[in-house]
Write a structure and sequence with these properties.
NADH Oxidase, single chain
Length: 183
């Protein structure tokens, strides 16, 4: 395997959910690079429906954290990123936004940052959160909320995943349901 491929696989293994963040600000140049990496995500039909709102103001983050009932450690992240998708651009706005969010999470790891996906549509508070973001950030109604990510410098180093830690063969089916490699 090429060195670049090994580096990428290592970054994926190293990506962990950060639960405690340092109070250290994330520089604008780093934020811009994260957004660039997010926008390299694959997108259905090249529609690129994503938009991002970077939230750094303590009072805005406090309202979002309160709405989500976040633990103090998550609430202390220096930035929150709302990942949005243009509902009018494509039916796949949420999938494309999810791909962009994953790119951002992996890029954060590669850049020495920690991250956590702190809100997603399965949260029962989702509609209230969406309304709050519209109020706080002036998010247009056509922009659907994909998720909110917390990003910052991790307060604690987490060990990388091991290759066998989360792989479960019974979740992989070859050709037909239940057919695993070796059968």
């Amino acid at each position: 395997m090429e060195a670049q491929g090994k580096d990428m696989l290592g970054t994926i293994l190293a990506r962990r959910t950060t639960r405690k963040f340092l109070a250290q600000a994330v520089p604008d140049t780093t934020i811009v690079q994260l957004m660039q990496m997010a926008m390299f995500a694959p997108t259905r039909l090249g529609r690129r429906p994503w938009q991002f709102i970077v939230m750094r103001k303590p009072e805005v983050k406090a309202q979002v954290a309160s709405a989500l009932h976040l633990e103090a450690d998550y609430a202390a992240a220096p930035i929150y990123v709302a990942v949005l998708g243009d509902k009018e651009a494509t039916d796949a706005w949420d999938l494309d936004g999810g791909a962009a969010a994953e790119n951002l999470l992996v890029a954060a790891t590669a850049m020495g940052l920690g991250s956590a996906w702190i809100a997603s549509p399965v949260n029962p508070l989702w509609d209230k959160l969406d309304a709050l973001l519209t109020q706080l950030t002036h998010k247009p109604p056509a922009m659907g909320l994909v998720g909110i990510l917390a990003v910052g410098y991790p307060a604690e180093a987490e060990p990388a995943h091991t290759e066998g830690e989360v792989y479960e063969q019974h979740r992989v089916h070859f050709e037909t349901w239940g057919a695993t490699r070796g059968k």
